Amino acid sequence: MNIHVQRLMDQYPKEFEAFLKNGKDLPLDIYDQLYGIFFHEMPYGVAKARTGDPYTWLHERLLEEFSLPIAS
């Protein structure tokens, strides 16, 4: 697991617990921090919110990180 994601989990245990249990969205300030962590992995158009939503991309990336199913 990404060390930076682990640190966020340690900072926000309740929020990540809800995310892991039911895929619940995380607060925007956490997504903002995740953006900084995963920015380099995002397609350029998504990172700039031109061809996709960065928050949706981050949500799906976290689901992958934790091997959780991605809802269609």
What report would you give on this structure?
The protein has one domain (3-65). It is globular, with a radius of gyration of 12 Å. The protein has helices spanning 3-11, 13-22, 28-38, 44-47, 54-65. It contains five helices and no strands. With 72 residues, the chain is an all-alpha fold. The mean pLDDT is 90.
Describe the structure using short key phrases.
about 65% helix; mainly alpha
Provide a concise account of the structure shown.
The chain has 72 residues and is mainly alpha-helical. The protein has five helices and no strands.
Query: What is the terminal separation in angstroms?
Result: 24 Å
Q: How many β-strand stretches?
A: 0
Number of domains: 1
Order of helices and strands: HHHHH
Percentage of β-strand residues: under 5%
The level of helicity is: 55-70%
Poorly predicted segments: none
User: Overall pLDDT, averaged?
Assistant: 90
Taking all Cα atoms into account, the compactness measure Rg is 12 Å
Q: What is the molecular shape?
A: globular
Task: Classify the secondary structure makeup into a structural class.
Answer: mainly alpha
Separate helix tally: 5
Largest sheet, if any?
none
